[in-house]
Structure formats: C-alpha cells, structure tokens
Write a structure and sequence with these properties.
The chain has 4 helices and 30 strands. By secondary structure, it is mainly beta.
Length: about 400
C-alpha cells in the first residue's frame, strides 16, 4: 500500500507541475503563445514578442527566422515585412511608450524566407540597423517584423507570435564627473521649479564604501535657503553602506546595501501620499509622507557637502555621478526602469535635466532647454557656518571629468 500511495503521489505532483506550467505559459500580456497547438511562429517569441537587439556599433544585424511545431512535409514560404505602424498599435494596447525607428535607419534584407521540406526552421532574413545618428537619446526604439503571408501550408501562425518586436538596446559610452571635495559648493538659480509632486533622479558609481567615519553626504536638491531639501548621504547612524534619504521633513534608510564599482540609478518619488526610493528601477522602500506644506520651490543644487570649513573633506564621498533629473510628477516604476541610461529631454513633466556629459569645462547644460544651465565658477557656500554665502569661483578648477569603459550603459 505504501508503494501504491507513493506512486499516486508522484503522478499527482507531475500533473500539478504540468498544469502549473500550462497556466504560467498561458498568462502572456499579449494573449499568449499557443502552447499545445500546431503551427508556425517567429523564433524567440515564445515567451514575449519583445526581444532585445543589442546595438553597439552600426551596421548591426539580427536574424529573423520562422519555426514550426513540427517538420513540414513540403516547402513553405513566409513573406516578412517591417511594419512600423505596429509600434503605435502596441503602445495603445500595452500602455508603453516605445518609438518607431527613424525612416532610413533600418532595413530588412529579405522579404521572403523558406522552410524546406522535412525541416522545422526557415532560412533567415537580416534586420540591419544602418545608423543610430537620428535616434533621440533617452527614447526606446522597437522594430516590428511581421509575417504577412504563408505559401505552401494551411497551418496557422500561432497566436502572439506573428510579429516580433526587436527592442534596440544601445550600448552608450558616456562622460561623468569624478567627485572632488574641493569642487563642493552650491549653484543657486535665478528662478524656481514649483513642485507639489516630484521625482528626483541621479546616477552614482560609488568607490568610497565602506568608510570607517560617517556619514558622507554627496548631494542635495533644495529651496534657495535650504528650508525644504532632498539630502542624500551614506552611513548615517552606523548604517553601513545604506543610503539615508531626507526629503522635506521625511527621512528613511534604504534597504539596499550599496557596493563599490557599479552604477546605480536612484529615483526618489513623492506622489502626495508616499515617498519612495527606487534603485535601478526597483522599489527599495516607501514611507507614508508628503512635502511639508504641500509644495516646494526647487532653486539650489549642492554638489558634495559644502557647509563649513572641514565638512567638505570630512564628509566627502568618493564616487562618480551623472544624469540628475527633476520631474514635476511622480513617475511610475515602468517609466523609471525605462530611464536607466537616459531619458528624452522632451519627456512630459521633465523640468530640468543635467546629463553631465560635456566631458570638459565647468558649465553644465540643462538638456530640457528650460534654462537651468549651471556655471560652476558662479557657485557659493557657507564657509564659516554663520549663514553667510561666499563666492567659490575656484570650485570650477576641481571639476574632474572621466570617460572610460566603466561609463557604459545598455538600455
């Protein structure tokens, strides 16, 4: 009896696994791949119609083929086409913000592919990216390639696999600033950005963790008098390698323990009810809270820790940084993930955007064109801890640029 019982338990477990696998496989957002049915499908669309296409140098190629769930008895020919109109259709269905590639930047080398008798995969057609010069930085482009006709078989194209959407993943090599405590100071703008909801973002590459003496503060985004501020620092209250976030009277410590020698996108979101921290597009922590008084007026950027005589050196945090962005709305997790490498300067709600990719000099351009450029020779700081701001023109002499193989990002 024990043997029979064990046998039935094993059979039950296998059936449950098979049912679970079927249920999982059938839950595709686009209606799903037709598992268990016979027919044709574009290779690599079994799990998702969106497939990554890495492009570092151009021209770059991706081979599109068609497969069958079984060997065909006679030759079958498939007509393929680039159908850029499907980008808008896909966005409308899935709530995404992909872009069609600029005209002339991509070609399909073959309009027909053939699956020979007694085979289950067709010949290949190359999708070639000829140039990315017209691509707008920060946009995510997809290339839809679809089967328009089948000759030689009455078998169907399986559901969800008639079109492959090649998401272009560009490898971007960028410049960044290597932090120097002598450059620590403040730039105060002559106008403000009023914010009731917000997203603040920045990219950092730590090189100074851990430190025996903390905290070490590396930036702040503030009102002109520092009355309402976002302040970021590591190792506060002996929290080794964790980030403390202070935003307008609210504060919390990250769950993430940060490590040296990797890039992080930090996104702080205030939606009026909660204040959240995302790390590389993933929610790290969230607390109930809102901006004091319901609003603030951004007007001041602090690089490093600039207050007093000894603080710039004592609280210095060794790191690289770039991509500081100020939004007047709360970004969704999907939007944040889409901006790992950069965002479109014309994005809705983006009020100021310093890419810090100039590579030379001490003037940092606002990519949005909204007029928030910074000239680091026009900075000032409170040197004597008495509330008096002193000009710091020499801070511009200590801006250190770096561009190497570390500064790469694939979107």
């Amino acid at each position: 009896m024990k043997i029979m019982k064990a046998k039935y338990n094993i059979i039950s477990a296998v059936l449950l696994l098979l049912m679970g696998g079927f249920m999982f496989s059938s839950c595709r957002d686009d209606g799903g791949f037709d598992y268990g049915h016979e027919g044709f499908y574009i290779t690599d669309t079994e799990n998702s119609p969106i497939v990554k296409f890495s492009v570092e140098d151009t021209p770059a190629s991706y081979t599109v083929t068609v497969q069958s769930t079984d060997k065909v008895k006679s030759d079958v020919t498939f007509s393929l086409a680039l159908d850029l109109d499907k980008v808008e259709e896909y966005n409308a269905t899935h709530g995404t913000t992909f872009f069609a590639v600029p005209e002339g930047s991509v070609e399909l080398t073959e309009s027909k592919v053939t699956m020979k008798a007694d085979e289950a995969i067709s010949s290949g057609a190359l999708v070639r990216v000829l140039s990315t010069e017209e691509f707008v930085e920060g946009r995510t482009y997809i290339i839809p390639v679809t089967v328009t006709d089948v000759q030689g078989s009455s078998d169907p194209i399986l559901k969800g696999s008639k079109t492959i959407y090649l998401r272009i993943s560009r490898v971007i090599n960028f410049a960044a600033i290597n932090a120097n405590y002598r450059a620590s100071s403040n730039f105060i703008f002559d106008k403000t950005i009023p914010l009731t909801t917000l997203t603040y973002e920045m990219k950092i590459y730590p090189t100074g963790l851990p430190r025996s003496k903390g905290p070490h503060r590396f930036m702040a985004l503030e009102e002109s008098d520092e009355s309402k501020t976002l302040l970021l620092r590591f190792n506060e209250a002996n929290t080794e390698n964790r980030l403390q976030v202070l935003l307008s009277g609210n504060k919390f410590i990250s769950n993430t323990q940060f490590e040296n020698n990797q890039w992080y996108l930090l996104s702080i979101v205030a939606d009026g009810t909660n204040i959240s921290l995302y790390v590389n597009g993933e929610l790290d922590s969230s607390i109930q809270g809102s901006i004091e008084g319901g609003s603030l007026n951004f007007q001041r950027y602090e690089m490093g820790m600039s207050w007093g005589g000894g603080y710039p050196r004592d609280q210095f945090f060794s790191h690289r940084f770039c991509e500081i962005r100020i939004w007047d709305r709360a970004l969704s997790a999907t939007e944040i993930k889409g901006g790992i490498c950069g965002v479109d300067p014309n994005s809705e709600g983006l009020q100021a955007y310093w890419k810090f990719n100039e590579g030379e000099g001490h003037i940092f351009k606002d990519a949005t064109g909204n007029g928030f450029d910074m000239d680091w020779s026009q900075t000032q700081r409170d040197m004597r801890e008495n509330g008096v701001m002193n000009p710091t023109p020499d801070a511009a002499n200590y801006i250190q640029w770096v561009k190497d193989d570390i500064n790469k990002c694939a979107n």
